[in-house]
# Entry
Amino acid sequence: MDGKMEFNSGIFKLSGHDMVILPTRFLEELRNVPEDEISSIKANTDNFQGVYSATSILAESNLHTRVLQTKLTPKLDPLVPIIRNELEFAMAHELPELNSEYCYVIGQSYTENAFKSIILLRMFPSWLKPLVAEFVPYVWMVRWHLYRAKTVLKPLIAERRKERVVGVANGNGNFDNLLHFMDEEATGIDAKPSKLAGRTLILTLASSHTTSMAACQALFQMCEHPEYIPELREEVRRVVADDEGWRKTTLTKMRKLDSFIKESQRLHPPSLRESPPLFTSISDRVLLILDLVGFKRAFMQSRVLSDGTTIPKGAHTLMAIQPHQMEDPSIPDPEVFDGFRYYRMREQEGHGNKHQFATTDPYTLHFGHGKFSCPGRFLASNVIKLILSRLLLDYDFRFPDDQGRPEDVPAHEYVFPNPRGKIELRQRADAGR
# Structure
């Protein structure tokens, strides 16, 4: 924030880092530039410490992006009952038996070993990381997880390939899950079972932690602002009754819940918060800037921007998107939480399909913007709504009397819901109806 205020609309570099902060006026200019010229995947895998977190495989090809965009997202409707069944199974095993009395549910840290590796290794210069990584238990666990994924999935891939051949011969060769979609789409080295297994593991990690964080933050917001719960609960009941069950359209009709989740993410995003980081190797001022940035890009070749500035090959750029979002002229009182803010905006003529949790615009960049926006954001939106609607229908929840909203836990530019936060749950008398 200090850097943005000091340089305003100018370009500046973070001291001690090969990171260039670009003004958001370059957003439209850069958002659809081909990946082989300016790469979001390369920027993010470098940021995720690549080989040490096993995320480097995502930079080898865009297989996962193609599959998510062309195969998974168009089939979200039949996935809704599958996800809901999985949710029912998980909640039956993870939540304690509840009765009419409130009981504690303590939030567990779901930060994977990969993220622990990322956060720790970013403290060290590149030349020292290979040595340090050999002594980091989290890195050992990442390697073990990758080994286990290959051990489990390689035989499954081989078996399903045989089944697919037989199925095609019988006119029934479709298998509707992400692994099978990637297997059908993959060619060359991408089609090796070990590569498919590794990519599946990393996509599971990439999707689950952000989805869980957004759902948890929204749940914390409901506990902090319980006045919204009756309206949210009534909306869920009404649309489920109207659709006589759970479909993709059911989730689309939950406009108030969608607005609440989006507003929760606006004030409690997975990164970009103005908070002191847990780990520091450079000045607090520089890391404060890091806490406010996104739209990461790696320049694969030198490029001259529209104002004449040359960005050299190999440079990593970011934008100060959190201050930019707070300047959105369509949002009055941006510091105030307003759970139905976006619901009211969508009620305006011509805005019915705008301002949704999964949509992006020049001021809402948490999922990126343009051609290379997060391809899994629509699935994430559905999963979050399924989790929260299930809780709204079957449980009352609140913070304990001696606890307010838990402070978020920052680490570098990442922000996590506080794993020590407590929520009290009580099963409702009309649960399951």
Notes: Confidence is low (pLDDT under 50) at residues 1-7, 106-111, 272-291. DSSP finds 17 helices and twelve strands in the chain. The two ends are 49 Å apart (CA to CA). The longest helix spans residues 137-169.
